[in-house]
Amino acid sequence: MKNKIVMAMLLMALVSGFVFANGGGDKAAAGAEKTKIVLLVKSLGNGFFEAVADGGVEAAEELGNVESIYMGPSSATAEGQIEIIETLIAQKVDGIAISANDPDALIPVTKKAMKAGIRVISFDSNISAGGREVALAPSDSKLIGSQQVKLIAELCNYKGKIAILSATAQATNQNEWIKYMKEAIKAPEYKDMEIVDTVYGDDAADKSYREAVGLFEKYPDLAGIISPTTVGVLAASKAIEDEGLKGKVQITGLGLPSEMQHYIENGTCGQMALWNPVDLGYSSTYILARMIAGDVAGKAGDKVDAGRMGTITIGPDGNTIMGEPFVFNKDNIAKFASIF
Amino acid sequence: MNKKMEKILQNRELNLVLLTAVLLIAISFRAPSFLALKNIERIINDTAILIMVASGQLLVILTGGIDLSVGSTIAFSGMAVSMLNQYNPEIPVVLLIFLGILIGTALGAFNGACVAFGKVPPVITTLGTMSIFRGFTFVLSKGQWVTAHEMTEAYMNIPKGKLLGIPNLTLWAVAVFAVMFYFIRYTRSGREIYAVGGNKTAAHFVGVSERKVNFMVFTVAGALCGLAGVMWTARYAAAVNETATGFELQTVAACVLGGVSLAGGAGTLTGVVMGALFLGIINNALPVVNLSPFFQMGIQGFVVLAAIVANVLMEQRNDRKLLAGRRR
Predict the structure, then answer these.
(1) Are strands A134-137 and A319-321 parallel, antiparallel or unpaired?
(2) pLDDT tens for residues A142-162?
(3) Å between B257 CA and nearest CA of chain A
(4) Is residue B283 less than 8 Å (CB to CB) from chain A?
(5) What is the CATH class of A141-274?
(6) Which fold has domain A2-139+277-325?
(7) Is the model's pTM score more than 0.80?
(8) A-proximal residues of B, 138-197, CB under 8 Å
(9) What are A109-148's pLDDT values in tens digits?
(10) Which of A157, A272, B70, B156 has the smallest number of CB atoms closer than 10 Å to its CB?
(11) ipTM strictly over 0.90?
């Protein structure tokens, strides 16, 4: 079954290769060869990456002379991606943006691609330096931390006691975000707010729920909870609903739209954030298109005009940050819940 | 008077009641609101699922076995029923509960068959099925969760509703307790479990089938996990693949705390319920007593261990007194 899919894909790739090689009648008539940008994802059939592909198409339409091609192996392996990159080199596409199944295993083949004149960047799950020109991360810890504080502040009118419900006490990313939340809340606009506690639900529904109820007990005047983990934000929302505290205790965090739809639609969770795969595909396509067109070199300090995402600055070693996570609320949750 | 006191102290369950009281008082020093009626109700409700599953675990441990697959069985049956609810919202919840029990029974029967007929030791069997059932859960769900907006209101209300002011989940646990209590104490099959666990050879010679008993205990344990799976996913309004990971150890701990011998043959259901409540109190107290989260896990283990040691010591003392009394 899997092999069949891979075969079918390779065939498709080959066929499209021939079509491109022939220039394509209508395109030739239009007089300009379209720039071919490939979004190579970890695996096919994953809602997250389907959304990435949508973003690529959106950017391609805006840019006009770009064709966005969506590809991926049938299962999430580095080998599958290597095979595809080999065929892409043979087809002489213009640019590849990769969400890598392995940060190092792809380097030899991507180097080969770059040697062949193909511009290579990575996004979401990045390739180590040397194997790509630009590595696009959805966000960074500082942006996430400060945005979380802003979201909860908006929900509880910039005042009151805030608690954090995290995953495990040793989770590196969580602790980074919490560190920046504590830094962000020192800003003058948050002077009436304080972070009173940080508790750990270990990403288990039952423990997170219990910790949330414990917070209500400990701080009867608690104004809000920030839970930057998908399990935590879900369990805390349920706890708020069960304890009849909807409207009294606010909740925000990092959550998946499909999982949080219920609580966002019924108002328990006013807003939450997460990186948006559509934006990732969109930004990756823009960055590649600008590099291929020669507008930017793809070196540190270059400023890329990325359409509706604003200006994205390429950082040292090509490590680049897209922006703040995308905010989900009542108005857009239904749309994104069907995507991821 | 003195004799009466001695008789009371002999009772291991009552020892645990005393220890629980000490624990509660200690907690209330740090968090006075902990003893509020509402909170006690909350703790009992929170422990209901543990009570159900631990009663199944009790049966298995009574035969001298152990069931490490309870967490995975909960996850699988919970996921299966949640997905049924998601894709066929017209199925009445009563049927869903029944199906949950049925799925759990099937998984438990598989364990039972391996142990009883395949002669695979329970630890090995359930260590294997712990991964197998968890794996099945992933295969079934394709890694996706079922969450609140995909569940029907009726499904989420299974544990949440109230009857005479008592949450349904608590009532389910009481019902399980009543049925299991009767089963263990007054039915032939129930007594046979003790017979096999206490002395296999003797049980064999009086005509008790060890195979039948082994098969039965795992099947019943599975059925209770199936019910727990429905309750778990409905209560948290989320069926995730990691549901109840590590829960098997909680159920074993509840049994050991309640005085169940891991060697088999000795232990009571009331003891297990007390043990489960003791754990429930700790689980619910840790978030409110303002201790560093880094200490929580260690403290939990320490308190459980201390309680078991204290319980054993008290029992030994009573045994000695009993012997001394007889000699006189």
Answers:
(1) parallel
(2) 889 999 999 999 999 999 999
(3) 21
(4) yes
(5) alpha beta
(6) Rossmann fold (3.40.50)
(7) no
(8) 145, 147-149, 160
(9) 999 999 999 999 999 888 888 899 999 988 888 889 999 9
(10) A157
(11) no
